[in-house]
Structures are given as structure tokens and as C-alpha cells.
């Protein structure tokens, strides 16, 4: 099943709604009140390294001016406006995005946006996905692609967000590939000659990722076994995962993500069993690595899941923080 969460300001007491929303977004943006009454409704799903949101927002400002280049965010956010208006400014490098517009935002760069009666679809995607679509990444921050070029991508994004329940884990890579192909078509006018080679690299990398996900329980999983499994040279593999810090680091991030997902899903197995099932040497090894990635050992994370109980905002904050670490 897909990892997901929801937020609805109307479900909270009026005096608490905005503070709860600001708390939700504190992982990546500074949030302040905009013009008009505040409203926020969010549905979010995580699909194999791709995060999709459907949001209805009004009277709220998101800013990364003080965070860009200083936090761990290193991905692109794509905002596809369904209705209303997303207002930018000089630092965001765009003035206004309206219905049918797709806005590209590089999280390494400063941005400030204000939502005005906005209904928007957002995708948080790794830089490699944008590179495969466009080639060069310079100059993409603040670029807007207008309708009708965006309509097919819009339909896919909205359908996936609204129908995410029930997808098995082995189906998620197919959904991500469908998104990538439509993204390539949508951004075709921004594509450079280097994109062709980058797409070939991406296909090889996806094969490697599928192999890794299928063998997370193998403690001996490494560059040599992955290379042999997909019929690629180790040098090719090292190049494909260079931006991730290497193959071993990517494998570890997927192991940790799988354990985090299991804990979020209420897994009852002892941590020692979860550790062995995901390729860790033992529980101590899991806890040490988990703390490095998420700021607390796996045991403490499990307790935080149990303690939040019916606190949907706390659960969403914790889940989203984990997602952002993985996508960046």
C-alpha cells in the first residue's frame, strides 16, 4: 500500500488550524499568513521516490528564502495549477501561475509564493528526473510551461493522487515511469541534446533500483551483485549513483526507508527481526544507521508512531520529514 497522509484545516479548531499547517510545513518552508482568510486541504502520497500532492490553499505564503542552500533539500518541486493563482516575485523568478500552468521550482534556490484560492497538484521529484527530461538544469527555476501542453500530465497526477489506495509496492515503479515519460513530453521544449543520454542512464538506474529493492534482505548486496544482476559494469553503476554518494549509500537509504515504512505501517515484529529482514547485521546496526538518517533510533521512532495515536498532524509531520530526506 502507498504511504500517504491528509490535512484539512476545517477539521481543526479555528484558533489552531494555521499553527497546525505551519507545523506541517516546517520541514521545508517558512509559512506565514497571506491576504484573505486562511484555508488548507492537503492529500499527499509517496510512490517509489516520487511524492505527489493535491492541495487547496488560500491566504498562505510559503518561503524558502532563508533555507535554500542551507538545508538538506536538493530536489525540484513541480506545481501544476488547476484553479486560482500562485503568486511569485523577483526571488521566485516568476510573477504569476494560473490554471493550466506548470511551475518548476529548484529547492536549492530561494523562492516565495502566495496562494490565492489555489487548487494545485505538486510533485516533489529528484533532480535526476528533471535532468532526464531537460538535460541541463540551469535556468529552470521559475520556468512555466503553459496549457494545453500540461493537460495529460495533469490528468495522470490527479488520478494517481486520488486513486493511490491499494497499489502494491511492485506496481509503484511502473507509475513512476509513466510519470517520467509524460514529464519528458511536457518539458520537451526545454530539452537539450544531453537529455537523450541521461534518459538511457535513467533506464539503467531504474533497473538497478528494482534489483536493489528486490534484494534488500541480502546482507551481501553491493555494487558487484547489482552489476551482475542487471548486466552492467561496476564503473557504469558507480557513475549512475554518483550523486547519491555511491551504490552502497543508496542501498542503505532504501533499507532505512523500508524499515521506516514498516514502522509507520504498524509493524509488530521485533526490531531484531526487522533488521535481519532488511539486510542489517543486527538491531544495533539498524538503530545506529536509522539515527544517522532520521535523528533518532528505530526504537524511538516506533515509540513516536505509537505515541502520536490519533494526532494526525504529528503523524503527517513525521511521515513527511522522512519522505523529504529520501527524495532529496
Automatic annotation (TrEMBL):
HTH araC/xylS-type domain residues: 206-304
Which PROSITE patterns does the UniProt record give?
Answer: HTH_ARAC_FAMILY_1, HTH_ARAC_FAMILY_2
The answer on whether this UniProt entry bears the keyword Cell wall biogenesis/degradation reads no
Q: Which keywords belong to this entry?
A: DNA-binding, Transcription, Transcription regulation
Give a GO molecular function annotation for the protein.
DNA-binding transcription factor activity
> Is the keyword Transcription regulation in the record?
yes
The source's domain of life comes to Bacteria
For this protein, the record's Pfam families field holds: AraC_binding_2 (PF14525), HTH_18 (PF12833)
Q: Which PANTHER family match?
A: ARAC SUBFAMILY, HTH-TYPE TRANSCRIPTIONAL ACTIVATOR RHAS-RELATED
Q: What is this protein called?
A: AraC-type DNA-binding protein
Q: What is the lineage of its organism?
A: Bacteria, Pseudomonadati, Pseudomonadota, Alphaproteobacteria, Caulobacterales
Amino acid at each position: 500500500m502507498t504511504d500517504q497522509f491528509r490535512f484539512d484545516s476545517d477539521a481543526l479548531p479555528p484558533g489552531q488550524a494555521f499553527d497546525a499547517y505551519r507545523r506541517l510545513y516546517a520541514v521545508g518552508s517558512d509559512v506565514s499568513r497571506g491576504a484573505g482568510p486562511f484555508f488548507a486541504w492537503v492529500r499527499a502520497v509517496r510512490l517509489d521516490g516520487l511524492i505527489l500532492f493535491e492541495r487547496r490553499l488560500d491566504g498562505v505564503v510559503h518561503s524558502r528564502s532563508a533555507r535554500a542552500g542551507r538545508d538538506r533539500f536538493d530536489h525540484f518541486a513541480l506545481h501544476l495549477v488547476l484553479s486560482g493563482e500562485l503568486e511569485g516575485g523577483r526571488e521566485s523568478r516568476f510573477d504569476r501561475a494560473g490554471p493550466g500552468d506548470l511551475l518548476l521550482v529548484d529547492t536549492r534556490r530561494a523562492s516565495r509564493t502566495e496562494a490565492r484560492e489555489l487548487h494545485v497538484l505538486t510533485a516533489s521529484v529528484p533532480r535526476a528526473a528533471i535532468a532526464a527530461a531537460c538535460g541541463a538544469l540551469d535556468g529552470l527555476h521559475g520556468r512555466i510551461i503553459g496549457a494545453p501542453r500540461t493537460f495529460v500530465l495533469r490528468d495522470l497526477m490527479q488520478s494517481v493522487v486520488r486513486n493511490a489506495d491499494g497499489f502494491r509496492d511492485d506496481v509503484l515503479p511502473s507509475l513512476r515511469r509513466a510519470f517520467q515519460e509524460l514529464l519528458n513530453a511536457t518539458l520537451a521544449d526545454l530539452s537539450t541534446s544531453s537529455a537523450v543520454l541521461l534518459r538511457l542512464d535513467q533506464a539503467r538506474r531504474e533497473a538497478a533500483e528494482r534489483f536493489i529493492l528486490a534484494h534488500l534482505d541480502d546482507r551481501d548486496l553491493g555494487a558487484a551483485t547489482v552489476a551482475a544482476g542487471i548486466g552492467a559494469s561496476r564503473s557504469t553503476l558507480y557513475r549512475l549513483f554518483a550523486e547519491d554518494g555511491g551504490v552502497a549509500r543508496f542501498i542503505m537509504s532504501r533499507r532505512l526507508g523500508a524499515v521506516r515504512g514498516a514502522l509507520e505501517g504498524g509493524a509488530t515484529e521485533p526490531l531484531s527481526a526487522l533488521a535481519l529482514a532488511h539486510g542489517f547485521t543486527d538491531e544495533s546496526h539498524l538503530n545506529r544507521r536509522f539515527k544517522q538518517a532520521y535523528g533518532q533510533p528505530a526504537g524511538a521512532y516506533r515509540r513516536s508512531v505509537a505515541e502520536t495515536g490519533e494526532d494526525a498532524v504529528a503523524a503527517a509531520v513525521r511521515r513527511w520529514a522522512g519522505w523529504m530526506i529520501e527524495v532529496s
